[in-house]
Amino acid sequence: MKVNTTTPIRTRIVPCHGATCATIFIMSFLIPADMVDNAPYPLDTALFIEKDPPMRYAVRVFEGRATETDWLEESHRLAELVKKDVSIDKSYYYTAWYDPPYQLFHRINEIWMVKKTEKQPTPNAGNEQIVSETKDHKFEN
């Protein structure tokens, strides 16, 4: 079965904090809502389907064709903005982008950090509420 690419394209990044470890990257694509209950099973054993509970995120939005350095700098900026908020899990983060590779300008990128809940669901999720941080503004959706 062919499934068109959906957005955002999300990558979970678990940074390495030491000389003998490796940073973990897990890229994911959303399954269209009409396919959720009957998602095709991947034939490649390196692929898997993961169902995420509703989650809340702290989000930083930025524009441009992001480089690896940009993603890292923006993740540090978001971590700095939420450093006093103990409800935000800062041990990993997500990158999310919405635009196709051929779009050169006005690209939207986001860094997400999970807001912990009392029940502590798994750390991958849909977005029940998004708190967005831009360079100059903060707003809630």
Order of helices and strands: EEEHEEEE
Q: Give the helix level as a range of percent.
A: under 10%
How far apart lie the N and C ends? 34 Å
Number of strands: 7
CATH topology of one domain: Multidrug-efflux Transporter 1 Regulator Bmrr, Chain A
Calculate the mean pLDDT score and round it: 82
> Which word captures the global form?
globular
In spatial order, strands of the major sheet run: 2-1-4-5-3-6-7
Organism: Araneus ventricosus (Orbweaver spider)
Family: Belongs to the HEBP family.
Protein name: Heme-binding protein 2
Describe it for me?
This is Heme-binding protein 2. InterPro entries: Reg_factor_effector_dom_sf (IPR011256), SOUL_heme-bd (IPR006917). Residues 119-141 are annotated as: Disordered. It comes from Araneus ventricosus. This protein has 141 residues and is mainly β. The protein has one helix spanning 68-81; strands at 9-14, 24-28, 54-63, 93-97, 108-115, 126-133, 138-140. It has a domain at 9-30 and 54-115: Multidrug-efflux Transporter 1 Regulator Bmrr, Chain A (Alpha-Beta Barrel), CATH 3.20.80. Strands 2-1-4-5-3-6-7 form a seven-stranded mixed beta sheet. It is globular, with a radius of gyration of 16 Å.
